Hints:
By secondary structure, chain A is of the alpha/beta class.
Amino acid sequence: xxxxxxxxxxxxxxxxxxxxxxxxxxxxxxxxxxxxxxxxxxxxxxxxxxxxxxxxxxxxxxxxxxxxxxxxxxxxxxxxxxxxxxxxxxxxxxxxxxxxxxxxxxxxxxxxxxxxxxxxxxxxxxxxxxxxxxxxxxxxxxxxxxxxxxxxxxxxxxxxxxxxxxxxxxxxxxxxxxxxxxxxxxxxxxxxxxxxxxxxxxxxxxxxxxxxxxxxxxxxxxxxxxxxxxxxxxxxxxxxxxxxxxxxxxxxxxxxxxxxxxxxxxxxxxxxxxxxxxxxxxxxxxxxxxxxxxxxxxxxxxxxxxxxxxxxxxxxxxxxxxxxxxxxxxxxxxxxxxxxxxxxxxxxxxxxxxxxxxxxxxxxxxxxxxxxxxxxxxxxxxxxxxxxxxxxxxxxxxxxxxxxxxxxxxxxxxxxxxxxxxxxxxxxxxxxxxxxxxxxxxxxxxxxxxxxxxxxxxxxxxxxxxxxxxxxxxxxxxxxxx
Amino acid sequence: xxxxxxxxxxxxxxxxxxxxxxxxxxxxxxxxxxxxxxxxxxxxxxxxxxxxxxxxxxxxxxxxxxxxxxxxxxxxxxxxxxxxxxxxxxxxxxxxxxxxxxxxxxxxxxxxxxxxxxxxxxxxxxxxxxxxxxxxxxxxxxxxxxxxxxxxxxxxxxxxxxxxxxxxxxxxxxxxxxxxxxxxxxxxxxxxxxxxxxxxxxxxxxxxxxxxxxxxxxxxxxxxxxxxxxxxxxxxxxxxxxxxxxxxxxxxxxxxxxxxxxxxxxxxxxxxxxxxxxxxxxxxxxxxxxxxxxxxxxxxxxxxxxxxxxxxxxxxxxxxxxxxxxxxxxxxxxxxxxxxxxxxxxxxxxxxxxxxxxxxxxxxxxxxxxxxxxxxxxxxxxxxxxxxxxxxxxxxxxxxxxxxxxxxxxxxxxxxxxxxxxxxxxxxxxxxxxxxxxxxxxxxxxxxxxxxxxxxxxxxxxxxxxxxxxxxxxxxxxxxxx
Lengths: 482, 482
């Protein structure tokens, strides 16, 4: 066995024999915990509820209805099949013209038509994952660094660094100002990276932010643009949640900021990563988009898109769907309305048991503050709390550490990947846990299982919580059962 | 302008500012020549005919018929739409179980059920392009080398070397033995690479071969397996044309050879690259498959598949289609029958004007021997001839040099990417050119355009050629018109 392993080290690449993928984190462990014991209201009511998956499942009925009333959008219907051959053999890395046009137009619409997108700059990739990697391959050499504000999406490590051999360098943000990105923070990281002999090639920002659930304001965006221009480095804007903003302030794209500053900025340094996985909820369709204002990047990235082209079957469907502007209009309004309702449901439940969250207005998740439940302000304590939540409360939320957060005690809670009934059960579990924990904080200590279980009669009323969350006016929702 | 360019060099990666993609070759130039003046029987009868694209368009009627009679295979029909949501959100990098099962079973069927494929080793990728890159990232570090027999598919340079920074090292094959791979040839390349201080990590073989249109025989495969095992390096088998064998000898997969030699071989060193782009003719759907017998490679490659997952919309369709075994059986028989007919049509026409080809039995192309039309046995003369063929004969065939062939004068001619009418026109043009050229070889000299044009009355009869090729028994097909 040992011989085989030694030979593997010898015959495989360093990538295959080391741990650069970053899968060994609580973020992914939580998914596995869910996979091994998934909640089901009928078959497994005590199973783990998945709140660690940033999926948008709230508006599929709208899409399904559209699909059924537009059979010509599919290659597999009598109305569309005559084009089966032409679509199945089409593998040009520019993509179907109708697809690029529709995506560019959709991106404009999502940005309130305040920005213009040129279909010829739309480059396809395998999801935002592929777009990030492609862009990194175009912008940086092995050993170079990209700055990224914390907390940030765990997949960035895989997408930007794993195969490119580029590294990410953190810009530390914290709760003192609501995790806002500041010029000082970015500048400090830049010089620190240089002191470590790293050549900084860019700054990656995520707007709206995953995991924060907030949008970047105009000033922050302008400052990021100015900073990167001053340093002659790239500004990469991940805008994959742009159509999930459900409350003011509205979404401002870097495209708008750039257009406003065109006279004093070099567009060659600005790039947008987009996808339909979150805004439309189609992660399975793998529609990633790289939009660059740099011609050389567009040309090179397009050649690279051979590694992750969007299936033409899917291009065709998306082209038809997004070309239907009245559908798009209706979908965007209704989808954000539903996300807003779901977000309020979550915030309300948490607030009533005294749990705060960052004031979010976008995304498919909230950034929950459990600092006061920690036994100590450390990441060890955060991990301990996380284990209790996943093992006993049976909810998979993602701890801040997996987002490289600088402060222990924050957790990302996804709210759009389940139906309303499951959401109520999940919130009930959280509330029950918090109330219980408030009464007896020592229960978080995993070394006293017997004592812990004996106090579980302190509880909240599921029926009351449900009525309350589903908008029936009622009195105080959470109470200690006697 | 110069300033901008200098800044681009400074701010972009070496990949983006150098020419590693390999697009600057006659292989791709020919595509561009076609794109700028595409033949159309009605609108542009003097345009360029595309014989440089290895596409399989001969059996789409069968697929279309199947699709229309199986509406449940699509998410976009009343019969399938209720699963729209579940499929659209599914992004697990294992892929749909039904998809992996169906692909594994299909691979077995194509290999005459003489090999077994484990669905759990099926890893998805963005076409064979993605599979080759993924595999290279797993097997080799930057600077390492993979051996590859010539002539080989031009895309290999992009797929295996561009972003991985691995290099390909040629194993020279030539026409003296029909371009067969020999142990001596492989060994010689291996030591030559080592002499150049390259660490050789593997041997890539392509079976059936693109551009040769031939299958590798059992002995060659066994020898390749033995060699790589002896040297403790990887054997990568690109089998993307496995279902295009239209004549004996039949296809033998490395999977069979390995199973026969299991006791004296380490399966960890064997990997198969597959795709549905050629065998089914769906390049637009981007279904690439990496099948490895090495657990660590399967695990790592699966993580990498995030960069090139197959759209679940497409997975679903393919799963249904390939699970219909009687359709698969009928399709494979009919598809290879049609490929054989088309191949015979081409060989017959060429033979009648004295042009030979390598005796092919597979693939979507023939390997045409135009050595005697060269003014000199050099690649410059090959390029000169190619320019005449594309500019005057208005046919895009791909010169051997673009396949890294060691001998000038060979050209790949694709025969399955057009309808029969166009094929007849294409063959007529080639025959006319050859007859004309036989009479007046100096016409290949591009410096005498007037003289050349004046002799064009020497010709062949289009009607006769057509009758002959489309199987009407007739006398000699090609003659000089008077």
